[in-house]
């Protein structure tokens, strides 16, 4: 049994999708980020960085893994699925996983901060992070022109990138001119395990849409967390 400590964010959904795809039994432990539950001592003992997601493998002497990419690799290697075992195949998956971890996630995350959450609209910063997100989307689109998935068969690389790219509207970045990326987004969205994974837990808002009262309230709460910072005493 896996304990999944998580919340309804792209990083959290990466791991819940993988668990669903792998058909691994897991217990969902949802943390309220707005109340700072990810900074409490019990969770910090699992994840010193105080960020979701994290997992505890009860079948492996309560082995804890934090950081979403590390969780994905651990689960893939534990089951022998969603990542090839040969050196080249494994490397291809890890390259595209690192592409998400080092590029897609950070750039979209900063786009969200400056486009959605900061009270002051700093246009050069918005342009910078939306522009870089779009550039990275274009890289994906170019690769997917000749590949069904990012690294051979469907893998943790697809899961990681998809969980973020699906929320492109929330970052204020359009993908209408990227047909291969759109095809890939829709194909993965149709997978039953993916549909279950993004409901574990369900988001209070639809990050693929925009403009309703719930989205505005969510942005206000996120803005407070951004303004308060990330130290252990903050509710972030």
From TrEMBL:
<feature type="domain" description="GST N-terminal">
    <location>
        <begin position="1"/>
        <end position="83"/>
    </location>
</feature>
<dbReference type="InterPro" id="IPR004046">
    <property type="entry name" value="GST_C"/>
</dbReference>
<dbReference type="InterPro" id="IPR036282">
    <property type="entry name" value="Glutathione-S-Trfase_C_sf"/>
</dbReference>
<protein>
    <submittedName>
        <fullName>Glutathione S-transferase N-terminal domain-containing protein</fullName>
    </submittedName>
</protein>
<dbReference type="InterPro" id="IPR004045">
    <property type="entry name" value="Glutathione_S-Trfase_N"/>
</dbReference>
<feature type="domain" description="GST C-terminal">
    <location>
        <begin position="86"/>
        <end position="218"/>
    </location>
</feature>
<comment type="similarity">
    <text>Belongs to the GST superfamily.</text>
</comment>
<dbReference type="InterPro" id="IPR040079">
    <property type="entry name" value="Glutathione_S-Trfase"/>
</dbReference>
<dbReference type="Pfam" id="PF02798">
    <property type="entry name" value="GST_N"/>
</dbReference>
<dbReference type="InterPro" id="IPR010987">
    <property type="entry name" value="Glutathione-S-Trfase_C-like"/>
</dbReference>
<dbReference type="Pfam" id="PF00043">
    <property type="entry name" value="GST_C"/>
</dbReference>
<dbReference type="InterPro" id="IPR036249">
    <property type="entry name" value="Thioredoxin-like_sf"/>
</dbReference>
């Amino acid at each position: 049994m896996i304990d999944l400590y998580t919340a309804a964010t792209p990083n959290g959904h990466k791991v819940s999708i993988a668990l669903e795809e792998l058909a691994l039994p897991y217990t969902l432990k949802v943390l309220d980020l707005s109340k700072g539950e990810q900074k409490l001592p019990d969770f910090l003992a699992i994840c010193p960085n105080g960020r979701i997601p994290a997992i505890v493998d009860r079948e492996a002497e309560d082995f804890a893994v934090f950081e979403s990419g590390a969780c994905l690799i651990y689960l893939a290697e534990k089951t022998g699925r969603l990542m090839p075992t040969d050196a080249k195949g494994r490397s291809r998956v890890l390259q595209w996983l690192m592409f998400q971890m080092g590029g897609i996630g950070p750039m979209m995350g900063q786009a969200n901060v400056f486009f959605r959450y900061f009270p002051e609209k700093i246009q050069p910063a918005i342009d910078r992070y939306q522009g870089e997100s779009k550039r990275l989307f274009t890289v994906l689109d170019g690769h997917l022109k000749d590949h069904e998935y990012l690294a051979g068969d469907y893998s943790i690389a697809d899961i990681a990138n998809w969980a973020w790219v699906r929320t492109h509207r929330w970052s204020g970045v359009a993908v209408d001119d990227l047909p291969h990326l759109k095809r890939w987004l829709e194909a993965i969205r149709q997978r039953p395990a993916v549909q279950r994974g993004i409901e574990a837990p369900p988001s209070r808002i639809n990050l693929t849409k925009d403009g309703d009262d719930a989205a505005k309230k969510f942005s206000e709460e996120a803005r407070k967390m951004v303004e308060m910072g990330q130290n252990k005493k903050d509710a972030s």
